[in-house]
């Protein structure tokens, strides 16, 4: 007899977000071996600045050889047991780097920091600390599809969407926050907090000071928590500049208050340094009870001592980190402009963005119908006919059909250029009568606004793949 976890379907792996990855893995693009394969544009990975890291490693071989600055072996020290609090040298270097990413606007105390095996583990651990099974967190839409797994699967927590609209660029509003809270109450769910990604995944936009003030006021009035996932904070490549929730608390003189104890930050080195394989995640909290509990839970997903040692050496080199952050942002901006410009040539627009490794792309005018069925039909054509894996908006719980997340930093310029050529060829071949006018699609959307997504969107199967494939 197996446990319920083995047979339950709440993991979210059947989402179109993950199914697109499966199709890519069956037919991955390779410039030489498989030039007609599927290009992976559904993976938010930063591959633009590996040369900077590799250059540092070539100039500083001691950490990789497990030797100190006196060239003495420290292999035994790193190989033996380390407690789950983490290496002090790494935690000290990490909080300084977190402050540097935020322009020195706020400092972090290493005693308030918990190391986890990536941001996925950090977010789940916070759910275990802040919510009981059946409690709810409010998340603004669209949101990262993996949250359905990270926040809910093992914890038993629930997600209630804060419905945001394209009419204001999917910005968080007071009315949307209040409406989400009311919806949770109607479902007899106890709201324990709000979770936001700042900068947003999938929008690629950083939260405004107005939105951050709204959030602080909201959690204060409702006596609930706020989790700010800031794993993309170092990717902000153009104005407006990034504002951390910790900076807002500091400027409001709230750092030593009960409100500050209900604000928690998640960070990692997966996006800013492009090191998802190193599994470096962070929980930062001003509540010592959360820090204590999360530290104990981290024993189930520790960061290796070898990884901590190497990263402490890299992050302690402030000349390197300053150069890296500046150059990486420049490269991200350049690649972002390449994607936006390429899509524009095909008559496709994006939400104006200033950060992240992706764009939130508007393909509403390409839908055969202004429905989520129409969105999935278009998505399948893009996967099978165009040969691009992108993430449909419905997988991100967007309330409006026709939006897609498209990543740009996990491939070469040549591959991105080919992807844009494929998009243009696809759009150019579409019958003009099938492309709705912009004004008509807005009218249709407003008259059929969807308040909640149909269940089938998240239980999507690929039984029709052969039909679509035969259309190629």
From TrEMBL:
CDD domains: AAT_like. One of its GO terms (molecular function) is transaminase activity. Keywords: Ethylene biosynthesis, Fruit ripening, Lyase, Pyridoxal phosphate, S-adenosyl-L-methionine, Transferase. InterPro entries: Aminotransferase_I/II_large, Ethylene_sulfur-biosynth, NHTrfase_class1_PyrdxlP-BS, PyrdxlP-dep_Trfase, PyrdxlP-dep_Trfase_major, PyrdxlP-dep_Trfase_small. Pathway: Alkene biosynthesis; ethylene biosynthesis via S-adenosyl-L-methionine; ethylene from S-adenosyl-L-methionine: step 1/2. Transmembrane segments: none annotated. The keyword S-adenosyl-L-methionine applies. Its EC number is 4.4.1.14. Its cofactor is pyridoxal 5'-phosphate. Gene3D superfamilies: Aspartate Aminotransferase, domain 1 (3.90.1150.10), Type I PLP-dependent aspartate aminotransferase-like (Major domain) (3.40.640.10). Belongs to the class-I pyridoxal-phosphate-dependent aminotransferase family. GO terms for biological process: amino acid metabolic process; ethylene biosynthetic process; fruit ripening. It is an enzyme of class 4 (lyase). It catalyses: S-adenosyl-L-methionine = 1-aminocyclopropane-1-carboxylate + S-methyl-5'-thioadenosine + H(+). This is 1-aminocyclopropane-1-carboxylate synthase. Residues 39-422 form the Aminotransferase class I/classII large domain.
